[in-house]
Amino acid sequence: MRAQHPAPPRPGVDRRRFLGALGGLPLVAGGLAGCDAEERAPVDDGPIELSVFWWGGAQRAEATEKALRLYSQQNPRVRFRVTWQDLTGYYDRLATQATGGNVPDLFQIDDTVLAEYAQRQIVLDLSRYVADKRLDLADLPAGLARYGQVDDRTVAVAAAQTGAALVFNRDLLHRLGVPEPRTGMPWREYVEWAGRVTRASGGRVAGTMDPSGDYRALWLWLRGQGGELYQGRQLGFGTAELLDWFELWQVARSHRATPSAALVEQADTRDLSRQLVVTGHTAASFAWSHQLPELQRYTDDELGLVGLPGSPAAQWARASMYWSAFRGTRHPGVVVDVLNFLTTNVAAGRILGVERGLNASTAVRRFVADGVTDRAQKQVVAFGTALDDLLGPAPAPPPKGHARVRALLIAAAESVHSGRSGARAATSRFIAEGNAALAE
């Protein structure tokens, strides 16, 4: 196995250029349109080297490379050329690879771009491999398998399952004499709880991060009322719903349940070290459940994990990230076999652990859970197990334009809680710009 470790992305490559580069890939790859990949490039019995690319830290890299080495031990003619880096610049790096005509055979993506990649025919359609069991998804929760489908075609497989979660400082709450939050508490009760924390701390710590710009929280709040974030290529909600959401958090601010606008803007990034629950500015923050072990490394206080406020049925079996195959790979059958191995092999599952989240296969998950010893990882397993029987149906993955909608929501929320804009004006602007982004 040849490993290429994190390298800085080429400057000046942005997401727009990446999508433009990928749009031209059929020519770079030798012509894909109207041609089945396996028929175009039959696999012989000679040595095969597959390229694999993902984002993550050193712990994820070590586990992933070890799992791939295990595959090579069982399939000696297959070797891997691996590349990994932080999420920042990851898609820029893919653009660089696309420009050079060397898109990885197997790569990691998330639901931000899944529908877009499928529609641009960048990813391999895995449906027939699922149908003939070469890619065995029988042990995936139905909703998790569904969340890898676009237009009823399987175009990706969950690398693991996660859930939107509330991470709270257990030791802090104990010191303040405030009870812990609980899964399923109504949103307004949660706001009241957060205000109680602020008062108990004498204003030194706010009860909760302000999630008004967090699409995960908004999506679950909408689903708890029978709505959705999206309906096809449009927003699934209107001005009235978003105004209610913003006004809920205006009430929270008036009760000092949330921190200052400057702190919220500082934390509105993907940098976990800046989450306010670990910097000591709030008692609770919003995160993905599988991120708890990493968050725990940033604080000496013990952290806890519960579901977001509202009905747990608003949640669904959600992919933390996916594995997808490049449609132009010369070895689609072998790539699918590797993907099947990473998904269904118990030994590989034990190596991968729960760093990306719970193993996608419930059969593998049971074996892996028994071997977890880390306290934070045990909480991740317990959270996922407790939530499994309460989950609702999976929606379709977000449509093209989701990344832009997420950015617009953050900007709208920040303009409201900083006072730069009124809630009604920010709401109207977001609805118009959000729908325009989805229509592009």
Query: How far apart, in Å, are the first and last alpha carbons?
Result: 41 Å
CATH class of the largest domain: Alpha Beta
Shape, per Cα inertia axes? globular
In terms of DSSP E residues, the strand content is: 5-15%
In the CATH hierarchy, the third-tier topology of the largest domain is known as D-Maltodextrin-Binding Protein, domain 2
| Overall pLDDT metric | 90
Strand order of the largest sheet: 1-3-2-4-13-7
Number of separate helices: 21
Structural class: alpha/beta
Tell me how many strands there are: 13
CATH architectural category of the largest domain:
3-Layer(aba) Sandwich
Number of domains: 2
CATH superfamily grouping of the largest domain: Periplasmic binding protein-like II
Query: Spans with pLDDT under 50 lasting ≥5 residues?
Result: 7-18, 20-43
Please estimate the helix content. Answer: 40-55%
- Main sheet summary: 6 strands, mixed
Please compute the radius of gyration using only Cα atoms.
22 Å
Organism: Micromonospora coerulea
Protein name: ABC transporter substrate-binding protein
